Amino acid sequence: MKAKTLRIGVILGLVALVSLGGVGFTATAGADTGVGGRGPGMWVTWPGFPNMWAGVYKLTAGGYAICVDPLLDSPEGTNSSDPYELTSWRTGRGEELTPEALAAAAYIAAWLPAEPTNAQAATVKLALMAILQPVASADFDPFKDGSDGYQAAQKLGLLTEVRDLLQLARSRAVTWDGVTVEFTSNLDAISKPGDVITASVKLPGLPAGYEVVFLVTKPDGATVRVTAVTDDRSTAALSYATAPDVEGTYTVSYQVEAVPPRYPLAIDPAKPEIQMMFIASAPLRKAGAAFPGHAQLRFPPTPPKPKPGPEIHTGGSAVPAAGFPGAALGGLLALAGLGLWLVPRRRAAHGGRPSL
């Protein structure tokens, strides 16, 4: 079937290899991104839509693509230029998709397995049509009883699968730009072995539940992997207790992998006047970087030992003074070489002074 002017034909699938750097990703130049024959999928018919191909097309560059125009069986415009990010999309009713909806479409396209089954290919196509809504006179929302999307999915026995994929895509869609990262840590604040390293990384637009790996490099060069997941603030946190008996330098970095693309990848149409758009999904993204700063841990200095004080030695007998004869009479104590002696007194005659 030849496409008519103003009909929007859309293809989503796996087309381009992507170069993943420390931040973001850049699409490489595409070779021949033409559309070949059909791949896995199923035919489906419901009132108003005879024989729609709910499946994928083979791409001459490898991989598969999905045309979401239900009446466009033989897509045109296959002599395409390099892929680019599709940063906007207007539905058949003229509604502009939100960034979250575009990210959901990119998630669905990336979900397509490398070798999909017939059911998987049909599920992806119907889910994409529910997001992009390319036809003004149709509604492909499978959650609305009796809608075109509901009837098509029900006819194929895939209503649950299509709904599940849509819910998954909307909850896991990533609007993170691949560049913005917010670091927080106490690396420059701790100082001694045994202190606890705390760090967090925020990737704005990465939903809760995505895995982030922290890499803690110890003083001996060994690396410890600590896995965390993002919370509802797009933040993953690390808490790591350093060894109490090892001093040296600690550093921390993070890695995140298997992140769906933010936007679908599009291909410039060969005939723009037909308003056809081919969309290709990017492979999953990954990123990583080191935290600023480092922890330099040292044992506290050992306090000096106190200098010894003067020693006191005593000589003589340890016998108490009371043990000496005449002690009960009172008397004068005499020191002789630090020994103690009690010298008894004599009373003077006739009440005179006592004499020694």
Write up this protein.
The protein is of the alpha+beta class and 356 residues long. It has 3 domains: 10-175 and 261-284, no CATH class; 182-259 and 290-297, Immunoglobulin-like, CATH 2.60.40.10; 321-351, no CATH class. 14% of the residues lie in helices and 31% in strands. The protein has 4 helices and 19 strands. It has helices spanning 99-111, 118-132, 148-155, 159-172; strands at residues 10-13, 18-20, 25-27, 35-46, 49-59, 64-67, 83-85, 182-185, 196-202, 211-217, 223-229, 235-241, 248-259, 265-267, 277-280, 285-290, 295-297, 331-336, 339-344. The strands form 5 sheets. It has a 7-stranded mixed sheet with strand order 4-5-6-1-15-14-7, with helices on one face. Helix 1 packs across helix 4 (159-172) and helix 2 crosses helix 4 (159-172). The longest helix has 15 residues, at 118-132. The chain is elongated, with a radius of gyration of 42 Å. 35% of the residues are buried. The model is unreliable at 1-33, 71-81, 269-277 and 326-342 (pLDDT under 50).
